Amino acid sequence: VSWLEWAASERARIIGGSRWRTLPAPETGLVSFASNDYLGLSGHPAVLAAAHDALDRWGAGSGSARLIAGSRPVHERLERALAAWTGTEAAVLLPAGYMANLAAVTAFASPDTLVLSDELNHASIIDACRLARAEVRVYPHLAVDAVEGHLRSGRRALVLTESVFSMDGDVAPLSELVEVCARHDALLVLDEAHAVLGPEPPPSPLLLRVGTLSKTLGSAGGFVSGPAWLVDLAVNRARPFIFTTAVAPAAAAAAMAALDVLRGAEGERLRSRLRANVDTVAPGHRSPIIPVVTGGEDATLQRARALRDAGLLVPAIRPPTVPAGTSRLRISISALHTEEELQLLKSALPELAAVAA
Ligand SMILES: Cc1ncc(COP(=O)(O)O)c(C=O)c1O
User: pTM of the entire structure?
Assistant: First the structure.
């Protein structure tokens, strides 16, 4: 078939499944429950000032990969701060959280490695496994027993999980996973993109922490942190790090300023506010991501439209982002939501009353 025919049939297939996506116009006038800017730091005055300053000082782009001539003092300062913040020896920056997962996995997994991956892991982790061409075993969601079963083979293994799952808002059993991995000498790679309210993993010599600058820190970029002997090896082996231009200096400076806010008294207050806002909507829920599973694609789109008519922006999440039959409304709570906005959400979505902690 020609490209034109192929594209038409592919388009018809996606539309037929009610999975066609278009880029939404930037929304104004709606209360957004769609952003991962959990603490509102993307608009914090100190963050903006730092970005402006870096832009004036270092220009718009880094001009080159980190290992060539792309490094600026702000990159190194941010890496040291991220390592300190995550209680690790070293950190390395990547241009996106997506690429941080690609880097962490491909630096250590190859066709002779066993990779164990939670069935609900993010697309960037799945793509990382593909890129590594490793032997991948997908284990049932959160099933530490299944992980241990695979590790008994004695092979050199990598275990991949999110700490807070991006579409379900639930939390991995970190202590158990750290313990099982340590017992079998397996390397645990933890994607903490959404872990603004925890959980904090116990320290471990075989733990890599993957994070993003794009959500809690309100900027753009990602990082991998861990023991220096692993991070140094990632710098030398991870192609998604080696062959890409360094994070824009203004983005790194913004994340640095956001991290300073986060680690201070104001960060403490913002996180308490976020915790309280989550409790208002779903008491005891472990994360700011609250899914309301609606099932089919059409029903979910309809509900999202009705919410929009009520002044609320709540994204409809459909396959392939989530498994077929589990389309959902995905609510992201922010520290900046007001009590009135949260009450409006609750009255528009009565199912929230039944969301389990
Ligand atoms: C769990 C998880 N990991 C990684 C990413 C990628 O991060 P980034 O948007 O910084 O590329 C996301 C979201 O985008 C995510 O939800």
Answer: 0.96
